[in-house]
Amino acid sequence: MEPFIFATTRELGQLPLAVRIDSLEGSRTPLPNTTLLKHPELKHVGANTSSCSDLYVTVQVWADSKPLTVPVQTSYKAFKNQRTWMEWLTLPVQYCDLPLSAQLAITIWDLAGPLNTVPFGGTTVRLFDRDNTLKKGRQKCKVWMGIEADGLVDTTTPSPVETGDEMDRLEKLVKKHELGEMPRVEWLDNLVFREIERINKQAQAKAKDEHYLFIDLPRFDFPLVYSEHEYRTPGASGMSSNNMSPANSQTIGTAWQPQGAIDGAIGGYAGPQRMNFKVFDPEVTGDNPAESKHRRLVRSQRNGIVDRDLKPNAKIRDELNEILNYGPTQELTSDEKDLIWKFRFYLTRDKRALTKFVKSVAWNDPTESKAAVQLIPKWTEIDVDDALELLGPSVHNSEVRAYAVDRLRSADDEELQLYLLQLVQALKFEAIRPDAQVDAMKESSLAKFLISRACDNEVLGSFLHWYLVVETEDPDASRKKLYSKIAWEFQVALGKLPDGDKRRETMKRQGDFVFMIGEAAKEIQAVRDRTKKEDKLKEQLKEPSNGLLSFDPLPFPLDPSVHITGCFPENSMVFKSSLFPILVHLKTVKDEHYPIIFKSGDDLRQDQLVIQIIILMDRLLRKENLDLKLTPYRILATSAFTGIVQFVPSMSLAAIEEGKKTPAGVLPYLRSTFPDDTTETGVKAEVMDNYVKSCAGYSVVTYLLGVGDRHLDNLLLTPDGHFFHADFGFILGRDPKPFSPAMKVCKEMIDGMGGTQSENYRHFRSYCYTAYITLRKSANLILNLFALMTDANIPDIRLEPDKAVLKVKERFCLELSEEQAIQHISNLIDDSMNSMLPVLMDRVHGLAQRWRK
């Protein structure tokens, strides 16, 4: 009798688990109209409107009713006739680490509107058969419709198909044929497969509303049997393996394993090796009771009068100063916390120390917490950036947060408007219960402060209103209720003002205006021809019943300082884009044009955040007497899928380089708009100054924010030389193009200055260095603003909220000296200019755009 050849899962070494998602088969009965009338939200689910809607699949490894890995999903794919992925997914776990109870929780997801998905169906597949053998080859899995795969031991979404019909029997035989367990006869196989295909079509016609997902697991030349780790007791570590008896061994079996068979299956095998295993201690991340008690004893002995007069020596002063220079993301060690606590009375004279002191307090200790709260009012007045840090998600004490709010009271309305977006997000971290009986203004000092300042200033009030409106659409029910309550209390507070009814009516009219212009944008969606779309748009704007042509003066939501009275329909147009944004020229009270872009179906909150940070950076630079001629156009998200963008008359560098409407090239274009023969470049000095400074400013700003997907179509230039970026769909280092440079400085930009040998180019580099060094001084403020946005619905922050602040901090390079930082920026500029791949990508993008047109 020949020996049975097999291997264990331990022999696969570092080979990761993989699965191929093949196809989804099945039909679905369309929903009756009565169901859609009762549940109108179902009209957004793709499968209810299309028999072959776009789906994607997520796979996650579970064991013993607990997830072992994060989900891995298929890439986006548009289906035409049948849902076929044929995509391999590699999961972040190795075969050798799989437990016997491991199973794949596979969920098929359907799109149900913007930023919303619903489970199309799910199935749970065990990775090991009953005989502890790893499954391999093609698997037919039953899809349980409308629910997510749970991955539990007693799963409600098991994958086995127990139909008992002829097709089930044939599929099992086909699987044996694929695995080589049946002899192959080519002419007979072809006849059989045709007959199986005919039977399969008949079976599908009978089985309505049943779906089956086909997946493929890696095939091996021999069975793979589950094996466990061999753990040894510490006392046996010094013993020779020859002295261990079979009773002490934890090996579950032995096998004859030919070298060639294993080599062919897993790409090489070096024989058995001794391995060191790390066992996770679940208590390692918790508080050490001994250390906690030691800290309490040490601190309790220092609460006397001696502590108040305690002063550090020179060495400790240096240590404290180093700690105080830590950034907001830096965590303190236990020793550093004890040191801060020990010299807390001495540190009250240093405004930088308060945030570090708050981190060093054991807030779960009532005695220590009370002592800390009593000391905070005696602290030297802190800066606004430190106040924002105290309003972050890590600070829960209401009295500390109230102290931070008191510091914000010193900020004027213009400065407060710069942080308003983040302060609205900080309301999530306040201890406000969203119950109807609870007054948020009594519970939250921040809510009371924002409402009070918004009542005193109409511009702040307008922005607060719209920021709250957007947050009331949060998918989280408790947050939605929280923001709805604060918005209601804001309206109540307005009603108590002498002109409160008028201001509330103004906000209602603003909402009606946004709704009507949104309806006009929707009306053109069904029209195919763009020219006809524009004609339809003009008709909608001229229609008296819509109320957009002429109305009483109204503060415009995007810029409340501008009052509008109607629009100019003849100047409106529709952009060439998949979502068809519209350009509308509004009429101001001075009968001037105020052009805006209204977008429907697009979430503008990420663009809104980027523009807000650019406005802040521009203000920080101006405070240092550095005006880089930035042009941060305004953006306001009016909902989760609509928004208004200020239109700045300009041309893209792609259009300028193409030279159809203007002389080709940036420099010839500027010469044609503002010529001056007395200058070296032939361009008016003021215009060239605008261009050089704005190029430098936006190069540094977009680098710090990690803005990606930069190409000549979203680099814009005004006739008077103001250069600026548009479209911030990718930030924090994300970029759809591979090997994109960290800073976008292209040849076309430099040629517009007169080339690398020109004086303008030297000025450009100098402005880049100065801007970077200046903004590094305010790094803590910018980092704290991003920290407050980690829980916001910003797409690129939501991907990795715990790393968003660190990604921005990394680009500030705070560990470098000023000279090193300047050299860092110099290297970035050189790398961007010398890299050929971005030039190639710009040309490919240009060709793609021309092909679309």
From TrEMBL:
<dbReference type="GO" id="GO:0000407">
    <property type="term" value="C:phagophore assembly site"/>
</dbReference>
<dbReference type="InterPro" id="IPR035892">
    <property type="entry name" value="C2_domain_sf"/>
</dbReference>
<keyword id="KW-0067">ATP-binding</keyword>
<dbReference type="GO" id="GO:0000045">
    <property type="term" value="P:autophagosome assembly"/>
</dbReference>
<dbReference type="InterPro" id="IPR011009">
    <property type="entry name" value="Kinase-like_dom_sf"/>
</dbReference>
<dbReference type="GO" id="GO:0005524">
    <property type="term" value="F:ATP binding"/>
</dbReference>
<feature type="domain" description="PI3K/PI4K catalytic">
    <location>
        <begin position="568"/>
        <end position="837"/>
    </location>
</feature>
<dbReference type="GO" id="GO:0048015">
    <property type="term" value="P:phosphatidylinositol-mediated signaling"/>
</dbReference>
<dbReference type="InterPro" id="IPR016024">
    <property type="entry name" value="ARM-type_fold"/>
</dbReference>
<dbReference type="InterPro" id="IPR008290">
    <property type="entry name" value="PI3K_Vps34"/>
</dbReference>
<dbReference type="GO" id="GO:0005777">
    <property type="term" value="C:peroxisome"/>
</dbReference>
<dbReference type="Pfam" id="PF00613">
    <property type="entry name" value="PI3Ka"/>
</dbReference>
<dbReference type="Pfam" id="PF00454">
    <property type="entry name" value="PI3_PI4_kinase"/>
</dbReference>
<comment type="similarity">
    <text>Belongs to the PI3/PI4-kinase family. Type III PI4K subfamily.</text>
</comment>
<keyword id="KW-0547">Nucleotide-binding</keyword>
<dbReference type="InterPro" id="IPR001263">
    <property type="entry name" value="PI3K_accessory_dom"/>
</dbReference>
<keyword id="KW-0418">Kinase</keyword>
<dbReference type="InterPro" id="IPR042236">
    <property type="entry name" value="PI3K_accessory_sf"/>
</dbReference>
<keyword id="KW-0808">Transferase</keyword>
<dbReference type="GO" id="GO:0016303">
    <property type="term" value="F:1-phosphatidylinositol-3-kinase activity"/>
</dbReference>
<dbReference type="InterPro" id="IPR018936">
    <property type="entry name" value="PI3/4_kinase_CS"/>
</dbReference>
<dbReference type="GO" id="GO:0034271">
    <property type="term" value="C:phosphatidylinositol 3-kinase complex, class III, type I"/>
</dbReference>
<dbReference type="GO" id="GO:0006897">
    <property type="term" value="P:endocytosis"/>
</dbReference>
<dbReference type="GO" id="GO:0034272">
    <property type="term" value="C:phosphatidylinositol 3-kinase complex, class III, type II"/>
</dbReference>
<dbReference type="InterPro" id="IPR000403">
    <property type="entry name" value="PI3/4_kinase_cat_dom"/>
</dbReference>
<dbReference type="InterPro" id="IPR015433">
    <property type="entry name" value="PI3/4_kinase"/>
</dbReference>
<dbReference type="InterPro" id="IPR036940">
    <property type="entry name" value="PI3/4_kinase_cat_sf"/>
</dbReference>
<dbReference type="InterPro" id="IPR002420">
    <property type="entry name" value="PI3K-type_C2_dom"/>
</dbReference>
<dbReference type="InterPro" id="IPR057756">
    <property type="entry name" value="PI3-kinase_type3/VPS34_cat"/>
</dbReference>
<feature type="domain" description="PIK helical">
    <location>
        <begin position="307"/>
        <end position="493"/>
    </location>
</feature>
<dbReference type="Pfam" id="PF00792">
    <property type="entry name" value="PI3K_C2"/>
</dbReference>
<protein>
    <recommendedName>
        <fullName>Phosphatidylinositol 3-kinase VPS34</fullName>
        <ecNumber>2.7.1.137</ecNumber>
    </recommendedName>
</protein>
<feature type="domain" description="C2 PI3K-type">
    <location>
        <begin position="31"/>
        <end position="183"/>
    </location>
</feature>
<dbReference type="GO" id="GO:0005768">
    <property type="term" value="C:endosome"/>
</dbReference>
